[in-house]
Amino acid sequence: MKSKKNLNVALVGNPNTGKTSLFNQLTGLTQKVGNYPGITVDKKQGSSKLPNGTTATITDLPGTYSINPTSLDESIVLETLLDNDNENFPDVVIVVAEVENIKRNLLLFTQVKDLKIPTILVINMADQMERKGIFIDIEQLKEELKTEIVLISARKKEGINTLKKKLLGYKNFDTNPVLKVSDKIDKAYFEDVKARLKGFTTYKSWLLITQKEPVKFISEASKHVIENFKIDQSRLKKYQHKETIYRYQFINDVLKKTYKIDHSKAKDLRSYLDRVLTHKVFGYLIFTSILLLMFQSVFDWATLPMDFIDVTFSNLSEWAKMKLPEGVISNLITEGIIPGIGGIVIFIPQIAILFLFVATLEETGYMSRVVFLMDKVMRRFGMSGKSVIPLISGTACAIPAIMATRNIVGWKDRLITILVTPFTTCSARLPVYAIIIALIIPEDRVLGIFSLQGLVLMALYVLGFASAIISAYILNKVLKVDSKSFFIVEMPNYKLPSLKNIVLDVLEKTKAFVLGAGKIILAISVVLWFLASNGTSDFKNAETIVTEKNKDSNLPTEELEREIASYKLENSYIGVMGKMIEPAIEPLGYDWKIGIALISSFAAREVFVGTLSTIYSVGNDDEGTIKQRMAAEINPVTKEKRFNFPAGMSLLVFYAFAMQCMGTLAIVKRETKSWKWPMLQLVGMGLLAYLAAFVTFAILK
C-alpha cells in the first residue's frame, strides 16, 4: 500500500456513464494526457486533494463494458487492475455507473469487485432519479454488493465531497468477492487453475487464461501454464458464457430487491426527442442544419479575431525589422520564424470554434444519436456502424480517429475504416481551406442569410465524407477478407452541456493542435528561410544581373528592388527546387512557390500556409498581411492573379483528396502492422488528388 499522503485511484466504467465528467470534477486543471508505455492509447491522469490533505492520483481508464477486453483500449483496464507490482496499481477503484442503465453497469462492477481490490460504486446522474421515477434502496444495495456506494451528479458537482471522504477509508472496505462465480461454473476446474497458476487469486487466474494475448507482466513459467489451459478453447468459451449468465442472474436478483422504476411518475422528454432526432427524414434534416450552422460560424465568428491576429503578426514582423540590427539572425526571425508561426496562430479562432461545436454535441448526448442515425447509411457502403465514430472524430484529426478504430471488432470493417478515414476533412485542412476560400470566394450572402464562404466550406466537408463512404464501398467489394462485426451504440441521456468540460476539451485539443503543428512549422520555416535566403551564383549576383538587365528601362528604385528580390527568390535553393517540379504541377494551375508548399505540407497539411508565409516574406519589404500578399501574387504568363478561381478550386480539391500527412501514414502502419496499407493510401489518394485537381482546373480555366 502507498503512504497516506499518496493514494492511487482508478476510474472504471462503461462508456457514457459520466466517468470523464467525474474525472474533471475530481482533478480540474491538474489533469494531463500521456501514453501508456509502448502503445498509443491515451492515458489521462490528474491529482485531487482529499479532506485530510492526502493527494490522490486519479487515472481515468478507457471506457469498457466488461473486464474481458475486445479491443486494445479495453485491455488497458485489465492490465492495470491485474498487475499489482506496477507503481500505478490502484489502492482503490471507483466504478462509475449511470442511474438509468445500472443493470448493464453492474456487470463490470461485479467483475472488478471479484479482483479483491477496495472498490467504491459511484452511481452518477442521481439528480435525475425523481424526474425519471427511479427509486434505489441504497442501504440494501450496499449489503447485497458488499461495497461502499455514493450517489453523485458529476454535472451538478453533487456528492463529490462525500466521495472524497469515502476514499480515505479504503483500507476498511470489504474486499470479498460479490459472488463466487467459479464455484457455480466448475469448482474442480477452478481449484486446479488456482493450484497450477500460483501467486494469483482464482478470478485473476481465470482472467489471465481467457485473454487472446498473454499479459506483459507475468513470468515465462506462468505463460506456459496458461498456454496449456488455452488448448481447450471450447471449454473456455462455454465457461465465459456461463460466467456472464450467472452474473446477470445475480444482478437481476439484487435489483429486484433494491431498484424500482415507476414510469407513471417519470417526467422524461428523452423518448420524444429520440423519435425526432433519429427520424428517417427529420433526423437527417436536423443534422444537416447543425452542420450548416457550424460551418457558417467557423467563418462568421472567426473573422474579427483572425484579422486581428493577421495584422498583429504582420506588424510584429515589420517592427522587428526596424528594431533588430541587420544580419542573418534578424532575417531568420523576421522572415522565417514570425511569418511561419503567424501562419498557424491565425487559425486558432476557427479551430477553437469547430472543437467547441463538436464538444458541445458530445456533451449533450446528441453525437450518439448521430452515430445511430448514420449507421443506416454506413451499412450500405460496407462499413460497421462503429465506423461512424472514427469518421466523425476525423474532423478533428485523423491520427486519434484511426486509433479509435480499435473498438471495431471485425478486421475487415476496421481495415476499411482505417483506409478511408483520412478522406474526412480534419482540422489540419481547415487553415488551407480557410485561406484559399477567403481569396477566391466573395463574402456574399445566399438568401440574405447564409455565407457563401461557409457553404463552400461545408461542401468540402461533404465531399470528404462522400469520398470516404464511396471508397469504403469499393474496398468492401475488392478486399477479400472474411469478418463479422456487430454494432452496439450507447444512447446516453440528454443533458445540458457542462461549460467546464467543454472549455477543458476545447483548450486541450486546440493546444495539442497548435503545439503539435507549431513545432513542425517552426522547424520547416527555419529550413525554408535558409533555402530561400541562399542560392546559386545568380542568387549572389542578383543585384548586378538585374540592374544590368534594366539599365535602359529607367525603372523606379522601388520597382527595381522588387525585381531584384523576385530574381533572388527564383534563383535561391528553394527556387531551383521549385522550378524542377513546376512542369509537373503547372497543369493544375500551380507555380513553383505553391509546389514547394505542397511538398513541405506532407509533414502536416497546415504547413502549406506557413510555407507560403515564409516564401512571400523572404526579401519582401512590402507591408501587408500574408493574405494580402497572396492576393497580390500575379501569374507572369497570364498576368492574372495567381490565386484566381480555377487555381484556387484546384487547390481545394487537391487537399480534399491528398493524404499529405506523414503522421497519419505512421499511425496507419502501426495499426495495420504493415507498410502495404499506408503506401496504398499515399499513392492512391495522391493520384486521385492530382487527377481531380487537373480536371477541376481544366474545366474552370
Description:
The chain contains 31 helices and eleven strands. It has a seven-stranded mixed β-sheet, sandwiched between helices. The protein has a two-stranded antiparallel ribbon with strand order 7-9. It folds into three domains: 167 residues, Rossmann fold, CATH 3.40.50; 85 residues; 396 residues, no CATH class. The chain has 701 residues and is an alpha/beta fold. Helix 3 links the parallel strand 5 and strand 6.
Summarize the structure.
With about 700 residues, this protein is of the alpha/beta class. The protein contains 31 helices and eleven strands. Residues about 35-40 have low confidence and may be disordered.
